[in-house]
Amino acid sequence: MKVKRYDYAGQFGEQLDDVVNTFRTILLDGSYILSTQVERFEDMFARFLRMPHVLGVNSGTDALILALMACEIGPGDEVITAANTFYATVAAICMVGATPVLVDPNPETFLIEPVAIARAVSKRTKAIVPVHLYGKACPLREILAIAESVRAYVIEDAAQAHGASSSTGEVAGTQGHIGCFSFHPSKNLAAAGDAGAVCTASEDLASRLRMLRALGQRRQNEHLLVGINSKLDALQAVVLSAKLPSLTAWNSERMRIAALYREQLSDTPVEFQRIDSGEQHVFHLFQIRTSQRDALLSYLTSRGIEAAIRYPTPIHLQPAFADLGLEAGQFPVAEALADELLALPIRPGMSNEEIAYVTTTIGSFWRAR
Ligand SMILES: *Cc1c(COP(=O)(O)O)cnc(C)c1O
Q1: Which of 79, 86, 110, 284 to mutate to test the pocket of ligand 1 (most atoms within 8 A of CB)?
Q2: pLDDT at position 154, please?
Q3: Which of 31, 209, 233, 289 has its CA 20 to 30 Å from the CA of residue 22?
Q4: pTM over 0.90
């Protein structure tokens, strides 16, 4: 049996012909840039998040860069984020010239923790970037309180958490000054290529973001800011608009699969990311934790199961960030998670047989030891 990580044909379902027909119209009439298709998706996603302003951009990475630019964060400023995040969070901070300040995550939630943020705060702290890793929402209330006390911005990296909410009901990406989303094909809401979005409740930040994504222009040839060129593509907007109405059902399906995994793996030695009562974890990744990770990965791979390591190298040990002068041993939890986490396949449409095949294969791995 093969257990795949993605099913793009399944995501389009019966809408494929409509999407292709809309592509044909767009290709022929030339409405490629910031067209009504882009506005339509921005409106739909704004309604989904219940946010007044959503702007489509080129990628999740650009969403983060634009958010930092909109908050005027740059050289000399410190930005606090998680040591176990994906590379792009930290690259964005470096791209605007600011200094990333890494924080070791909580070993149970795998997320950045308010107490650790409070310890990392300095006079130069200009922003905090909580990352809702694997689809679990960070405790934003406490993080916002810390940010407020030092007058720092909160920029949420919600690239893995479309529709997630915490046990106190806050929707990921909507509580900070700016929320950043990715629609990379691997994410819960997937474009057919790179795409991303920023959201904000602030009129002021929205108008800066609108200019910054379009070469700093207020209108054609009137450039008020030094911006970049990072607009959501009209064709990607069509794909995203077709899929967004299914996102809530897809997230529920991910939760159902995760619950089955947890139940069926409960008598194996693997550990899980903590789930808090009342939260909506949207399981962008279903991570299991074991010291036998590498052996288990090859065991599963050789049996047709597409498990994957996300992410094998923590930020402070990535060559790109060598200039930060950080060393092995400084973030022990991030290092342990990098060595021990394994992402099992999870995707809407996964059958009970596939789930049972994955869990019985993991069971037989332990019996064979
Ligand atoms: C995917 C991802 C990004 C970057 O998004 P892209 O669209 O690939 O640029 C940033 N942060 C996190 C946590 C991600 O998972």
Answers
A1: 86
A2: 98
A3: 209
A4: yes
